[in-house]
Amino acid sequence: MSQDLPLLARYAESLFWMARYLERVENLARLIDVTQIFESPGREAAAWYALIRINADEDEFAKRAHAADPDTVKRFYLLERDNPSSIPASIDAARMNARTLRPLISTEMWMQLNMFHRDVAAITEDELQGDKLSRLCGMIKLGVQKHTGITEGTFFRDQGWCFYELGRLIERADQTTRLLDIRFHSLVPHGTEERRVEEMTLWAGVLRGAAGYHAFRRVAPPGFTPQDVVRFLLTDASFPRSVLLCVGQMEWLLGLLRSRYGLRGTVAALERIEEVRAAILSRPVERVIAEGLHEFLDGVQRDLILLAGEIGTAFFRDWRPLATEQQPAVAPVMTQTGMTQAGMTQAGMTQNGMTQEMRAQRPG
Predict the structure, then answer these.
(1) What is the pTM of this model?
(2) Distance (Å, whole) CA 146 – CA 25
(3) What residue segments make up the domains of the chain, in order of their start?
């Protein structure tokens, strides 16, 4: 029985963005939880405002005239549905894309996402304090992890699965670079041994923010340095959230789309991935840090934005990333008809000449 079924471009687009939104939700919930655990007395405001910087939300936060205090940041990400970066808004968008995908996704995927959406919509301000906040973040992380497990066990492995995974991996790699970029320069050890012990504790918080603490402890030297953490998050070939592992998996998925399904628009994206890999592996981490880690990570983030654009231009109907160069693309939310809210025009040909149905044409 052939598995080379046609895939509508609007389905590929919705899968890509649904995965990105849900990955973003899990990452943000983990960062909120870790920030509360590791905030330093007297420096709470700076710790919580770092979340705004990690998500490049400075302008949106300032536009709302919010005070940069912990409670306001919590409400900004956990309660404000009109904030496009918030957890409720991201779940809304993921569910909207899933509604477009009802002919493709399993009943279990749809039902779990609906229940998850209901639970997030019921969050109250009372849950944003103390142990209640940790339990809330645990519920949110578990909700995304349930979705991931159900998807792994029930979603058909065709082109759609490739686009779902591509969205998840791009978001994951981007979040890793942003976490590392914002945290590194405030945590480079200096001064007394007491200060170094404090900073090593905070580096453990960075690793927990990337869900990598226990994995890192398996491979790290006993007296690890910040350089070891940077190397692990950028280049470890076994850690699921390292940038190198993510780009390697994306390369495999794009190769699968080309070799198995005959989709010929993968060349630009594959070349971009090769550039990212070369940038990561061409210099030792110590040299990258000495020459400017922020500039290096900023370049990787820009490459990931361009990579998403190259995939979208090649395979989706009307790629219009709503983003600046400094901020990740905000997903075009899909309506029930599958058209973007930004433009209800009739979809035409993509730039590589494929029709909206993206049939699996073999080269030659």
Answers:
(1) 0.85
(2) 13
(3) 9-315
